[in-house]
Specification:
Distance between the termini of chain A: 32 Å
Number of strands of chain A: 3
Mean pLDDT of chain A: 94
Number of domains of chain A: 2
Radius of gyration of chain A: 21 Å
Number of helices of chain A: 6
Order of helices and strands of chain A: HHEHHEEHH
Largest sheet of chain A: 3 strands, antiparallel
Helix content of chain A: 55-70%
Oligomer: homodimer
Amino acid sequence: MVKLDPPQREWVEAIGLFLERSGFPPSSARIYGLLLMSAEPELSFEDLVATLGFGKAAVSTGLRRLQETNRVSERTRPGERRRYFRARLGPDAGVDRFRAFNSALCDLLERGIALRGSRADAEITADLEASVRFLRFLDVELGGLRARWEANGDG
Amino acid sequence: MVKLDPPQREWVEAIGLFLERSGFPPSSARIYGLLLMSAEPELSFEDLVATLGFGKAAVSTGLRRLQETNRVSERTRPGERRRYFRARLGPDAGVDRFRAFNSALCDLLERGIALRGSRADAEITADLEASVRFLRFLDVELGGLRARWEANGDG
DNA sequence: TAGTTTGTTCGTATGGTTCCGAACCAAACA
DNA sequence: TGTTTGGTTCGGAACCATACGAACAAACTA
């Protein structure tokens, strides 16, 4: 059981809603929020159940999703069977997903352009081509950005 | 009714699924896909209903959502009551949403850092601070990117 | 006025997601 | 071997979003 002020509880809820909008199920989102807000860097399964008020099932599947997407790591302490969970914070995750998304979109748009053929309206085709060019530009630049940030040694 | 090859139909479905994953309801996603694939740059309400196989209700609400988010424009032709719908393709929409998302996340993380206070685990706090710094850097750079692209006159 | 066209809105139904409680399993220990 | 602890998986219930059909509205025609 984790001690949290009311504002801290509200924050967990707020970031929970936020993560939900980016595709996480509610249980995963609250778990991640709690791991970020807790004064302790690691929490046990039981801590999560007791503090969040979710059933064990929800916490179990919520954790699984978080681990599948590399958002949470898990370890055990010597002599204890219990596992402890910790939030993993990589600033790049969002960018990576964004780039992957754009890349997939780009491929799709190119296939679309090809399928439209030459008899189709030229303006829409031109718009699609402009989108593809921009997405390619964006991908290259985002790659450079990442390199630049890491070179600065601040991440 | 719009004539589409089977591969073209599949493409509409594919980009439909793709847009669904970025938050669009299924009907909106298919409508937008069809508007992009159709040889005609504009389609009527009836075209959408007949080609997609959705009911009128679904097309109506699907279109509303697309218009609310500026993804589709509508016009009438002189002497016709019917309305014609056209896809609007802005390459920036994705970037804007990404930046808005990051900005909101950044604010949230800063509030989180403040709420954690000084008694909380320092490593997690430091990770949060690094995330904030990176997000700020990213936002600035993305702004610059946009400007650079538009200056090149290729969008 | 009566009828046709062009959509919109409402009530209901359906599909998919997520939750809970319970049953279950695996590991440690008596 | 039996018991406790730590966690997973299953079945059913609840919820939310969305689709359909039908009723409705608005605009034009005859």
